[in-house]
Amino acid sequence: MKDKITKMTVSELSGHLAAKDISAVEAATAYIDNINLVDGDVGAYIRVTAERALEQAAEVDRLRAAGEKLSPLAGIPAGIKDNICTNGINTTCGSKMLENFIPPYNATVIDRLEQRHVVMLGKLNMDEFAMGSTNEYSYFKPVHNPRDLSRVPGGSSGGAAAAVAADEAAFTLGSDTGGSVRQPAALCGVVGIKPTYGAVSRNGLVAFASSLDQIGPLTKDVRDSAMVMEAIAGHDAGDATSLDYDWPSFTQGIEQGVQGLRIGLPKENFGDGIAAEVKEAILKAATVYEKLGAKVEEISLPNINYALPAYYAISSAEASSNLARFDGIKYGFRADVDGDIDDIYKATRNEGFGMEVKSRIILGNHVLSAENYDAYYKKAMQVRTLIIEDFNRAFEHYDFILSPATPTTAFKLGEKHRDPLVMFRCNVYTVPSNIAGIPALSLPCAADSQGLPIGMQLIGKSFSEPLLYRAAYAFEQRGN
Amino acid sequence: MVSQSTIQKYEMVIGLEVHVELKTKTKIFCSCPTDFGAQPNTQCCPICTGMPGTLPVLNRQVVNFAVKAGLATNCKIASDTKQHRKNYFYPDLPKAYQISQYDLPLCEHGYLDIETGNGTKRIGITRIHIEEDAGKLVHLEGEGTLIDCNRGGVALIEIVSEPDIRSAEEAKAYLQKLRAVILYTGVSDCKMNEGSFRCDVNLSVRKKGEKKLGTRAEMKNINSFQFAVKAIEYEFARQVEALESGEKLVQETRRFDQNTGKTYSMRSKENADDYRYFPDPDLPIIEITDDERNALGAEIPTLPDARKAKYIEEYGLTAYAAEQLTIQREIADYFEKAAELTSHPTLAANMILSDVSRLLQPDETEIPIKPEHFAAVAQMSGDGRINSGTCRSLVQMLWEKDIDPEIIVREKGLEQINDEAVLSGFVKEVIAQQPKSVADYKAGKAAAFQSLIGQVMKKTSGRGNPVKIKELMTELLED
Fold first, then answer.
1. Domain extent for B340
2. Residue A364 pLDDT more than 60?
């Protein structure tokens, strides 16, 4: 059984831990061994905190032996994207700028996981400051897709998706600003959710675009995702955008099925640029839902094609401001330069940031500048309103929207790297839910002819996570 | 130098931006304390030093205090308002943006009425917004520059006036009035020496009668009324001189040097920053309901203008005197206590404005005389038991040692001499002893009369009734 620990879902492992037929130390050891075995090829981790993980695991075993009532997540080994602050442990954001930055505080999600005695295995690789869709923009190293090491895992939570796919963590936490959880989840064949904006505290998540960022779990299956959400969602007084909402259980009622639910298929998401096999797989998934008793209809979200340009204006604008603090004065990297304060700023930011980050900062400053504000930022915010209205209209008639997660399956490292516009297209189906602040879940639905996973996406209205889990679970269980 | 007659052809146009530190116990976006003068960097945390991943959460007390300041300055209060980021790089600003407000400030369209020698004038208030203060840079000779983040994140309101001010006197009167009103509301201690009330002056000049505004200069962080007056006077003359010599003025920021009394160019607006304002996505819209606004309004005590109107009405004070009396809340409170204890409140008011304000240091408001003792002096003076000179010296005596003034008057025999027989005896003595002064008086020298009165007063040890002495002197000199 011990060989199989890392193959288990969170719920399976949780059962074994509770039954004491696997100890938390055994579980942590199994994962650490597997990381040592495969991560040289995958590159999911920037830092493995093995010693600390084993201490935490030993504590769980002590508590369990003492008869303490523990959370279902107690002793579950998890990995954390490296833009989520961990007290006393480097939090690099995949950047040279924060290579040696050790936060003296935990993100709220880390506090919540620690209260539940989750064992942290380490910090996960990512595109620098969460900007990218392939994980090739990590300062440290690229991540390789465990399904095919010559391919990208997606990004920016590439390490978080790959770690789950390669059995290097029972679950991971990523962050999703325009698809950074769902797109790599789809490419690596795991489950990823971008919760309702404000469902999970952003406190301690190093901000990329504050109005779009959400932390979300990546897991082997749908139930695991619901279990982790149960631990991390909820109001946090430390985040003014956190929702004060009385969430129902995400796991209870997950088996209820989709009988009678109404599903919309947005025709705009099946047009130009989608790979034939992906399109086919999603349409096939729609027929599965019909067989399960749901009603599927084509709908239109007329403004959704404007989501991508609006996203690049808004996210870059916010990023240019959020990343301004990395100036070499108080923390992080400082260039070794003689000169005045402006010289320190310039050299530090020039040497400390990679090209992708710099280009977004420049774009963001451009759209916020006095002469361009109305034409770009303001216009983008107006588009944002139109997209929210499109979704609101759709949700008057439909319980959720079924869409591809990505236009294609995983592509080769280096393939799209050079062309930013092609790269941007990777998030064409994921960006609208960030723009609208609504929940969206990506789960594997098929494999293409090369055996690469295809992800589909369920998009719901705000607070509809329990329903999305129900629908995703029904699909996942379709063969059973 | 430009001649006075040339200067007379110009007028100055001034708008003031005043930054007031609110006296909330904690900072605007975190729970750090705000005490002044603590050891550097002992009152800061990951939030107010802008560490990665930290988030601001608005301290609602800041909104409440700002609403009070807005109501006290006759502003309209927004029912919902936003916070914006003002982006710029400076080492005292660790996030590299200041959270402030932009197109939707909390308070707008207010005013204050001021008193100057020319009467009452209304100065418009464009807006009041909330924002965070920056940290402080400490430049050490030879050692470089250090950053103290204690002040970073302390809550500020910025109060922007309309360009309604036309003289240094008006500017000073406005600043005093604004400070008085804010002090009354209790939302700030307005300590200028600690920087909790500081002023930026925007000044331009134009020929009198012209409508178009001239090119303005901004003078930042002036922290005393006197410096404001000096900076304005210097800058007005400088701009007039420049225009007269055919120079083209540029819009610029200038630094006022309190040692030289001059202003110096810092940077011109041509290469000024574009602050790239945008709504802060970390902070939701601030809502203020009518009930909340009304409740805050009810907490504001009677403001200087209401007291001023009462003093004019009830005590027959001039608007100017009433303004002076109400400009500091503690002084007005003191006056009202004393006024209740005497049947001569107007006299008590005038005693505060002359005898007491002479003894107070600038910005000092504590009068070390019990109001009942002060009222007793006013009573004696008003009843004619002591004369005005004795009244003044009594106040001085009580200032040094606050005891019952009746005891002093009794023990020192300070009561006024009103007995005409006694007084006319002294007058006759003086006329006899000072033939030269008498001759001068009769030759039409008015000063000689004063000198004769002075001699009589001396003989009474300062206790004679001056009115009666004058009457008797006039009478007896006619003979």
1. 302-412
2. yes
pLDDT along chain B (479 residues), means of 10: 83 97 97 93 96 98 98 97 96 97 96 92 98 94 90 97 96 94 94 91 94 91 90 94 90 89 77 86 97 96 91 90 88 93 93 90 85 94 89 93 92 86 89 88 85 89 88 85
Domain shared by B357 and B252, yes or no: no
* Contact check, Cβ <8 Å, B52/A365: no
Closest C-alpha among A203, A219, A178 to residue A311: A178
What's the pTM value of the predicted model, to 2 decimals? 0.90
pLDDT of residue B437: 87
Give the mean model confidence (pLDDT) for residues A7-21.
Answer: 97
Question: Closest residue of B to A107, CA-based?
Answer: B53
Query: Where residue A191 sits, what CATH number does that domain have?
Result: 3.90.1300.10
Per-residue pLDDT of A185-203, as tens digits, reads: 999 999 999 999 999 999 9
Which positions of A are annotated as active-site residues? 81, 156, 180
With CA atoms as reference, the chain B residue closest to A204 would be B53
Nearest to A329 among B94, B274, B282 (CB): B94
In a domain, A185, yes or no: yes
CB contact under 8 A, A241 and B282: yes
Rg (Cα) of chain B, in Å, rounded?
28
Nearest by CB to residue A239, choosing from B55, B97, B276, is: B55
Interface test with B, best of A327, A338, A369, A434 (most B CBs within 10 A): A327
Domain hosting A168: range is 2-232
d(CA A426, CA A441) in angstroms, rounded, equals: 16
Which pLDDT belongs to residue B141? 86
pLDDT digits 0-9 by tens, A89-118:
999 999 999 999 999 999 999 999 999 999
* CA distance to partner chain B, nearest, from residue A240 (Å): 5
CA distance A164 to A170: 6
State the sign of the Cα–Cα–Cα–Cα dihedral B306, B311, B316, B320.
negative
User: Is residue B56 less than 8 Å (CB to CB) from chain A?
Assistant: yes
- Contact between chains at A101 and B52 (C-beta distance less than 8 A): yes
In a domain, A311, yes or no: no
Distance from C-alpha of A474 to C-alpha of A223, rounded to nearest angstrom: 11
Question: Does the ipTM exceed 0.85?
Answer: yes
Instruction: Give pLDDT tens digits for A45-62.
Output: 999 999 999 999 999 999
| Contact criterion met (CB below 8 Å) for B78 and B100 | no
Residue with tokens 């006329």: B431
Instruction: Verify cis geometry, omega within 30 degrees of 0, for the bond prior to B461.
Output: no
Task: Looking at the structure, tell me whether residues B408 and B424 fall in a common domain.
Answer: no
Q: Which pLDDT score is estimated for B271?
A: 57
Quick one: closest CA in A to B281, which residue? A211
Average pLDDT across chain A, whole number: 96
Two tokens at B86? 């003002």
Chain A environment of B276 (Cβ under 8 Å): 320-321, 365, 368-370, 373
Out of B269, B296, B323, a domain closes at: B296
CB contact under 8 A, A324 and B96: yes
Number of domains in chain A: 1
Chain A hits for B283, CB-CB cut-off 8 Å, are 240-241
Kindly determine whether residue A206 and residue B53, on different chains, have CB atoms separated by under 8 Å: yes
Give the one of B91, B97, B147 whose C-beta lies nearest to A321's C-beta. Answer: B97
Query: Cα separation of B259 and B395, whole Å?
Result: 36
For residue A470, pLDDT beyond 90: yes
Mutate to test the interface with A, among B86, B269, B282 (most CBs of A within 10 A): B282
Q: Which residues pair with B130 in a beta bridge?
A: B157
How many beta carbons lie within 10 A of that of residue B271, not counting itself? 6
The pLDDT value recorded for residue A478 is 87
Could you give the CA distance from residue B318 to residue B158 in angstroms, rounded to a whole number?
32
Contact of A270 with chain B, judged by CB distance below 8 Å, is answered with no
| Band of pLDDT at residue A418, cut at 50, 70 and 90 | low
Could you give the CA distance from residue A353 to residue A165 in angstroms, rounded to a whole number? 29
